[in-house]
Amino acid sequence: MKTRFDWQLIPSFLAVLQQGSLLGAARQLGSSQPTLGRHISELEQQLGVALFERTGRGLLPTAMALQLAEHAERMAEGAFQLNMAATGSDTLLPGVVRITASQPVAFQLLPPVLSRLRERYPSIRIELVASNTVDNLLQREADIALRMVQPAQASLVARKVAEIGIGAYAHRDYLARCGTPQQLPDLLAHALLGEDQGTTIQRGLQLLGLDLPAEHFVLRTDDYLVYWATVCSGMGIGFLSDHMARKAPDLLPVLPNLRIPAYPIWLTVHREIRGNRRVRVVYDHLAEDLPLELARQLAG
Fold it and tell me: Are residues 256 and 295 in the same domain?
């Protein structure tokens, strides 16, 4: 006779998978290491497979554990949604979710999105890190990342949730002083503002047939807020996201048909923690609300 499957072992399995150790899982669940160890042993016995390899660095999931993880996550999510529907509360969600986002996204798009998240789930606290580096998530320094490049690491799960359109803009005072370009080669006679280490603008112009060396730009910076403020000051022609340019009524489009390739926004999470209920709630909210907020800002 087959042993009856104990569904209550699933939270312990997911916690160990997410944390990589019995100690971390015990802290997450408010339990003890011996209890978590017993739960994993019982689950392995019931399933008849090994789920983790014990190493000096902790517990490494086996191929079977990774295969079962998606099913376990769906089970846990179903139970969680059932409880939420029954109680009408977010009492199972208290805690912190740490988000890292590129500076433009953190500054322009996230504040209203996170404000609405706060209204829906008041027990969740957010830590927001504005950073353009991608190693935060790999080193587990953040739970969720919003990036403009698709991660290549197999341990990360990424979903493209939006695209940010980029255009050329200048302050009306600059155009009054220096004239308005009528065609792409006219940009060579103007003060252009570009990136420092980044190459997106140069590569975008190159694709359009205009090859500009770095020395042609009168100012280069990778700090987006500095870049935006410099364009707004009337120093020259810059390349801004369309929705951000709408925030400054004195910025006018230059060569409206000139379109730099759009920036994608990738919503990224570490494969091993995507089943965490609190992280999943924030992840789903961002996936749903971020494109809507972008559309609102474009509509003015």
Answer: no
